Amino acid sequence: MYKCIVIDDEELARALLISYIDKLDYLELVADFENPVEAISTIKSEAIDLLFLDIQMPNLKGTDFAKIIPSSTKIIFTTAYSEYALQGYELNALDYLLKPITFERFLQAVNKLETKNTIAKPVNDTITIKSGYDLHKIQLKNITHIESDSEYVNFYIVDGKKIMSHQTLKSLEKSLDPNLFMRVHRSFIVNKTKVTSLKGRDLLLSTLNIPVSDSYYEKVKQQLF
Q1: 3-state DSSP call for residue 151?
Q2: pTM of the full structure
């Protein structure tokens, strides 16, 4: 889940971006602002992953604001003026969206964030799962998929075993290696190596069907097929 902020002095432009963010389960809107100065305290107090930032605004231009925020916050510039594109890329922006912004173009930009965060890095090949008073040490490659079950998650293992753990899918997703695991639905994370095909809106893990939600469908096709 990536925490986002939208900054744009045009109300309609903010509303459009917010509607796009709401379509994607892996984006969380923290706040939206008309003035970039108003966003400073929120950015300082919260770990913001992604900033949708208009360039041409009164008081403070988006390109100037971008220079004072934490480097860990990725920026997607939004503007009606194409002449600002070069300046946006010079600031190492994730992408540059020219208004009016279509959902397809928005999705392309957001997927770049996913790509940057899937750079391979050393990880343990096992996970310790707490289930009640028991601890289970499982090899990650042996987990086929993980399913949300209210305040619990179920880990499904290749030998047919199911382990229930008291945690949320949202919190678990952040700790899993994105090179191996992928969220495909509000209720499901799958092991990418276990996926055999995509039929309609279902992923097949051998003979098991896992539904893919609309908001993840394009990402699933791009990363798995």
Answers
A1: coil
A2: 0.52
- Picking from 193, 182, 210, the residue whose alpha carbon sits closest to that of residue 139 is 193
Question: Which residue from 51, 45, 11, 55 is spatially nearest to 29, judged by alpha carbons?
Answer: 51
**159 touches 149 (CB < 8 A):** no
Q: What are the tens digits of pLDDT across the range 138-156?
A: 999 999 999 999 889 999 9
C-alpha 77/C-alpha 17 separation (Å) is 12
CA–CA separation, 2 vs 175, rounded Å?
A: 13
Helix (H, G, I), strand (E, B) or coil at 10: coil
Helix (H) or strand (E) holding 209, with range, is strand 208-211
CB 48 within 8 A of CB 73: yes
Within 8 A by CB and 6+ apart from 1, the residues are 26, 27, 28, 170, 173, 174
- Name the DSSP class of 56: S
The Cα–Cα gap between 176 and 173 comes to 5
- The model's pLDDT over 68-112, given as tens digits with 9 standing for 90+, comes to 888 788 999 988 866 554 454 456 688 888 889 999 999 999 988
Q: Token match 């709401």: residue? A: 22
Q: Do residues 163 and 154 touch, judged by C-beta distance below 8 A?
A: yes
Q: Can you count the helices (H) and strands (E) in the chain?
A: 7, 15
SS3 state of residue 108: helix
Mean pLDDT across the stretch 46-70?
Answer: 85
Residues ≥6 apart with Cβ < 8 Å to 160: none
Q: What is the DSSP letter of 46?
A: S
Give phi and psi for 95, each to the nearest 5: -165, 175
